Amino acid sequence: MTIQPTDIAWDFGAPDFADWDFADWDFDDRDEDADEEILGAAVHVPDRDTLGALSLEERTDIIDQYVRQELARVLGIAPNAVETAGCTMNSLGVGSVAGLQIQNRMETALGVEVNLQMLLLANSAAELIECLAGQLGPGDSVHARRSRRTT
Fold it and tell me: Residue 130 pLDDT > 50, yes or no?
């Protein structure tokens, strides 16, 4: 095989866009609703101080909503489609990559320590919710004491 020389001069420099007419071009101007469709709905992070003042039951309800939103966003499903009881995290679709995303998002948003191994091996999202509700409650919680020891 031989390569034939050509007389074509290739200019790999940046094109000059000043002379281009973009008026007839159709750009994809997405709005926030389209972004929510792609990224999932915005996650509403509960206020830590408010959670600490609530009863365990009230705190658990708020954390349940928050965890559903986080799982839904990472998994690309609707929050009401997240099964919190009876499904392991693995069966929900939470693998190592999704687990790392969830761990990072929750630690950053809530200021708590989330053990990745426990997250991935949880029997259900309800276990995660219970643990977070305990960590974010008054200092007399078993989870809160455990959280302080590890930080």
Answer: yes
